[in-house]
Amino acid sequence: MKRLWTPAWIARHVAMVVLVTTFLGLGWWQVSRAAAGNAISWGYAVEWPIFAGFVVFVWWREVRHTLRTEAPPTGDAVASAPTGHPGEPVGPGRATAPDAIDAEQSRTGIRRPVRVARVPAGPGEDDADLAAYNRYLSWLNANPGAKPGDYPG
After folding, report:
1. CA 150 → CA 1, 59, 117, 141, 144, distances in Å?
2. Within 10 A of 69 (CB to CB), how many other CB atoms are there?
3. Which residues contact 63 (CB under 8 A, 6 or more apart)?
4. 153 vs 149: CA distance, rounded Å
5. Which of 47, 82, 94, 136 is deepest in the core (most CB within 10 A)?
C-alpha cells in the first residue's frame, strides 16, 4: 500500500477527487437548469455523472494495476544490482550480466529489439520487377518534364 502514497499517486488521488466532485457538481447544476425548463439540460444531467464514473473506473483500474505489479526494489536490492543499462559490461573486463538483463526485462516489460539481417533477393521474379522499376525511375530522371503516364515501357 505504500506504493499508493508516493507524490505521483497523491496527485492522482487529488485529481480524482477534484474531477469527481466537479463532474457531480456540474451534473447537479444541469438538473437545476432542467427543472427550470431547459429541456436539453436533462441530457447533460445524465452525462456528467457518467464522466465522474469513468474517472473512478480509470483510477480504480490504475490502483489495481499498481498493486498487482512487483514492488520496486528495496535499498539492499538496488545497492547489489549492477549499474548501467542492460547489455553493458558490469565491470571492467567483465561480460554482461544476463541476470541483470532478465531482471530489467521482467521489471519494465520492455524487451531489447531483435536485429534481422537482410537477405539479398535471389534470381527470380523479384529481380525482373526490380529491374523494370529501376528502368522506369531512370527514365523519369532522364526526362524531368515528363509525366509518369508518358513512360513508353
Report:
1. 72, 61, 38, 13, 11
2. 11
3. 4
4. 10
5. 82
Q: Which amino acid is at 60?
A: W
Query: Which position has the grid cell 529501376?
Result: 134
Q: How many CA atoms lie within 13 A of 87 on its CB side?
A: 4
Distance CA 19, CA 55 (A): 7
Answer yes or no: pTM beyond 0.70: no
Neighbour tally for 34: CB within 10 Å: 17
Here the cell at position 112 is 531489447
Q: Which three cell numbers stand for residue 18?
A: 477534484
Alpha carbons 138 and 148: distance in angstroms, whole number: 12
One digit per residue, the tens of pLDDT, for the chain of length 153 reads 788 889 999 999 999 999 999 999 999 999 999 999 999 999 999 999 999 999 999 999 999 999 988 666 665 555 554 555 555 544 455 455 555 556 656 666 777 778 777 766 565 556 888 888 888 888 888 988 888 788 887
Planar angle of CA 56, 60, 61, nearest 5 degrees: 120
